[in-house]
Structure formats: structure tokens, C-alpha cells
Specification:
Blueprint lengths: L11 E6 L2 E6 H6 L5 H18 L4 H4 L3 E6 L2 E7 L6
Antiparallel strand pairs: 1-2, 1-4, 3-4
């Protein structure tokens, strides 16, 4: 059984969704970035998927710094970042 290693709420992320690019934190994603249920669900599921991937036993899994896919019918890309201007 795999144990999911969750990111701290202060972990900084870059979220790309269509023409929207924004820098935010895991805490803000968990609380909802906007007023659209589908957008919030899609970004939360993308963060969950990246956490699941990074919890794997393989070297490549543990080094993953981003993920992209379609959740809730919305194309989302999540990248870990060290951007400090937000």
C-alpha cells in the first residue's frame, strides 16, 4: 500500500489552465482558486495526482516536478516552483 506524501500548504505552484497562468500555493488550491466548481475540482485533482506520483518508490517518481492532464474536462498543468513574488 502506498502512503501519499502531501505537500505543505505553503508549497508554491504554477497552474496553467488554457490561457490562464497563475502562481499560487497548495493551500489556496485546496481552498478553491475561484468560483467555478469544475476549475477548483480540476486543480485540486491535479495537485492530488502530482502528490501521488511523487509518493512512488521510483527515482523518476520522486523527482517529478509537474504534471499535466485533463480533470473534470479541463486541461490543467501543475508545476512546483520557487517563485517568491506572490
Amino acid at each position: 500500500m502506498i502512503t501519499i506524501n502531501r505537500f505543505p500548504i505553503t508549497q508554491k505552484l504554477r497552474v496553467v489552465c488554457g490561457e490562464v497562468h497563475l502562481f499560487t500555493t497548495v493551500g489556496k488550491v485546496r481552498n478553491g482558486l475561484g468560483d467555478s466548481y469544475k476549475f477548483n475540482a480540476a486543480t485540486q485533482k491535479a495537485v492530488d495526482a502530482l502528490e501521488f506520483t511523487r509518493s512512488g518508490n521510483g527515482f523518476a517518481d520522486q523527482c517529478a516536478t509537474g504534471i499535466g492532464g485533463i480533470w473534470e474536462g479541463i486541461s490543467v498543468q501543475i508545476d512546483l516552483t520557487t517563485q517568491s513574488s506572490y
